């Protein structure tokens, strides 16, 4: 599972630090203190630790999942090697015997209570055995003669160094583990939100499909009746004009249903287009729908704009934002386009009343509206569509009044991903 994979990866980093520290201490004990140790045996133990760490690091790049039992076996191997190294360097008289606590602390932080208690039994047995069985570092026959006070001072200094090393290792490992756990929790929260949003989208799509199917019959009936009424009242200009307007509206509704069906069929079809071209097309189509709406458009940078991945759903989402801004104020909209190598930003500033505090925290959720009318699903569908394009929409109260709607879209090929 991903959690144990990350823990085992952190364990390989911890082993590198421990190997470096132990190698330095062994060299100091041999050449500074003059300890009588079997250098080849110690080097073999440290080499075994290095080989296990290299094998573990290579194994982590495979597709095999890291189980709890595997992580426990890795910690047992560490405890055995630490015990072997301490056995060769004085046993329980070695102030660095507390290195045996490192596997136990990692077990307590990551594994279940059964494995933690088992690791506790293992390290206690090792410590108890090392009280009696060990290779002395300074045997009585050595040519180096240390007084009892000097040996005690040396032991105290070693314990201080051991305490400092243990504190650094434990703090570093636990901080890294907490960071990894927070990242995993954020990923789980995002996936949960996406799943909930996906379920809501499926519900809305099912409802929309059923509604579109049901509306087809009454619209066809209305079209037939309006044709008959046009023939009946062709001598009445005012009535004929009203009937022609109704026919136009019915045709618009039928065309809208057909467009919705084509969009659903081509939902996965996307292509790349310069953002300036996309915005020009979008504004031209929007002016046909909203001829009374006015706007002022400006680009913050000269030259060609980067490519973005576009689709019918994206154009509809941006149209929803333009409609919301136009509904909020009769004043001309201020539309600004900006970009860099990784993202493009579309900012729409209206002169409306701004965002109400009561609903600002829930904007983007289904059935939440600030208009006092409507179903409250437009901004939700817009936010969902932009998220599918790895973009986002945010709404702010503008310092000069009204609402600022900011859309961010990644440029094509930028590989932009949401920040952790």
UniProtKB/TrEMBL annotation:
Membrane topology category: Multi-pass membrane protein
Pfam families referenced in this protein's UniProt entry, alphabetically: HATPase_c (PF02518)
Record-linked Gene3D superfamilies: 1.10.287.130, Histidine kinase-like ATPase, C-terminal domain
TM spans (from-to): 12-32, 39-60, 80-105, 117-135, 155-175
Domain Histidine kinase: 210-413
Chief place where the protein resides: membrane
Localization in the cell: Cell membrane
Catalytic reaction list: ATP + protein L-histidine = ADP + protein N-phospho-L-histidine
GO MF annotations, alphabetized: ATP binding; phosphorelay sensor kinase activity
Key words of the record: ATP-binding, Cell membrane, Kinase, Membrane, Nucleotide-binding, Phosphoprotein, Transferase, Transmembrane, Transmembrane helix
Group of enzyme by EC: transferase
Enzyme Commission code(s) on record: 2.7.13.3
PROSITE patterns assigned to the protein according to its UniProt record, in alphabetical order: HIS_KIN
Family annotation (SMART domains): HATPase_c
Gene Ontology CC annotations of this record: plasma membrane
Protein name in UniProt: histidine kinase
Organism, scientific name: Marinobacterium mangrovicola
């Amino acid at each position: 599972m991903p959690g144990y994979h990350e823990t085992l990866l952190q364990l390989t980093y911890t082993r590198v630090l421990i190997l470096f520290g132990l190698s330095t201490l062994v060299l100091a004990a041999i050449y500074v203190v003059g300890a009588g140790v079997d250098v080849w045996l110690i080097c073999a133990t440290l080499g075994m630790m290095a080989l296990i760490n290299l094998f573990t690091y290579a194994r982590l790049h495979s597709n095999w999942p890291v189980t709890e039992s595997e992580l426990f076996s890795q910690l047992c191997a560490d405890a055995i090697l630490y015990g072997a190294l301490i056995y060769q360097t004085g046993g329980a008289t070695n102030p660095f015997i507390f290195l045996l606590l490192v596997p136990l602390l990692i077990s307590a932080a990551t594994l279940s209570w059964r494995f933690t208690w088992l690791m506790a039994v293992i390290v206690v047995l090792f410590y108890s055995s090392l009280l009696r069985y060990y290779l002395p570092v300074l045997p009585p026959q050595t040519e180096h003669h240390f007084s009892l006070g000097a040996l005690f001072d040396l032991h105290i200094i070693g314990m201080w160094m051991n305490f400092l090393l243990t504190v650094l290792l434990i703090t570093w490992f636990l901080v890294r583990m907490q960071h990894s756990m927070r990242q995993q929790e954020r990923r789980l929260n995002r996936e949960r939100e996406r799943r909930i949003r996906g379920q809501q989208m499926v519900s809305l799509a099912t409802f929309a499909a059923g509604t579109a199917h049901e509306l087809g019959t009454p619209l066809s009936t209305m079209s037939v009746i309006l044709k008959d009424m046009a023939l009946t009242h062709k001598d009445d200009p005012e009535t004929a004009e009203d009937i022609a307007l109704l026919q136009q509206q019915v045709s618009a509704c039928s065309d809208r249903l057909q467009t919705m069906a084509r969009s659903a069929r081509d939902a996965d079809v996307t292509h790349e287009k310069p953002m300036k071209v996309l915005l020009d097309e979008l504004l031209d189509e929007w002016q046909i729908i909203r001829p009374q709406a006015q706007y002022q458009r400006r680009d913050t940078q000269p030259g060609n704009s980067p490519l973005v991945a576009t689709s019918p759903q994206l154009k509809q989402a941006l149209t929803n934002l333009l409609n919301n801004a136009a509904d909020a104020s009769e004043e001309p909209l201020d539309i600004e386009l900006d970009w860099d190598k990784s993202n493009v930003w579309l900012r729409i500033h209206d002169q409306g009343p701004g965002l109400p505090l009561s609903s600002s925290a829930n904007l983007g959720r289904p059935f939440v509206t600030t208009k006092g009318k409507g179903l409250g699903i437009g901004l939700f569908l817009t936010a969902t569509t932009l998220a599918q394009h790895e973009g986002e929409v945010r709404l702010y109260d503008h310092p000069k009044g009204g609402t600022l709607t900011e859309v961010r879209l990644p440029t094509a090929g930028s590989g932009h991903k949401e920040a952790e």
